[in-house]
Design brief:
- The protein has one domain: Lipocalin, CATH 2.40.128.
- The chain has helices spanning 2-19, 72-82, and strands at 21-34, 39-52, 57-63, 68-69, 90-97, 109-121, 124-137, 140-150, 169-180.
- Helix content is 16%, strand content 52%.
- It starts with a helix and ends with a strand.
- Strands 1-2-3-5-6-7-8-9 form an eight-stranded antiparallel β-barrel.
- It is of the alpha+beta class.
């Protein structure tokens, strides 16, 4: 009898924990750079992300070669000269939604989110903090955020030939449509 009760409790706990996790493999990240020489914009629609609504743990994984640019030459320069995608194929974020208790995942609405954690790009990790929103619609969670990073903070060098003509800061926009994790 105790074994059945223990098994039932473990099953219910596992089911409850599963219902509190959200994932996507089709998140969207765009970045924009407005420099004197040229405006540079790219989009990546294959972003992996997961959120645990109980603990607030929040992660992203981004394949750098999946960024698409308007001009093929920009994409080539981005991958070969700036982020060195062959050497550093992924960008990651591992952090936490600090105010997770203020977000009611059972009630539709738009909730402010305070996120902080470690962002790794080009092999360099920095602690970042930003704000965003979670929109709860049924069982889905739409997350949005906007923040800026400095290329130098991630050891991304601007070639001397274009130095001063390309922005040293990049505006990053994230949009993720998280779905409940199902087995």
């Amino acid at each position: 009898m105790k074994l059945i009760t223990l098994t039932t409790v473990l099953f219910l706990f596992a089911f409850q924990a599963e219902a509190q996790r959200y994932i996507t493999k089709t998140g969207r990240i765009t970045f924009f750079s407005d420099g004197p020489l040229e405006k540079i914009e790219a989009v990546n629609n294959g972003v992996n992300s997961a959120l645990d609504s109980q603990s607030g743990m929040f992660v992203f994984k981004v394949l750098m070669k999946s960024f698409v640019f308007e001009k093929a030459l920009m994409q080539e320069h981005f991958n070969e000269n700036y982020v060195e995608s062959d050497k550093y194929p992924l960008a990651t974020f591992k952090g936490k939604v600090k105010n997770i208790k203020d977000i009611d995942f059972t009630k539709p609405g738009i909730y402010d989110a305070e996120v902080e954690g470690d962002l790794t790009i080009h092999g360099k990790t920095n602690h970042v903090a930003t704000t965003g929103t979670f929109t709860i619609e049924g069982s889905d969670v739409l997350g949005k955020s906007l923040f800026t990073i400095k290329l130098a903070d991630y050891n991304i060098k601007i070639p001397s030939i274009v130095e001063g003509k390309i922005a040293e800061e990049i505006l990053i926009t994230t949009t993720i449509d998280l779905k409940p994790l199902k087995k």
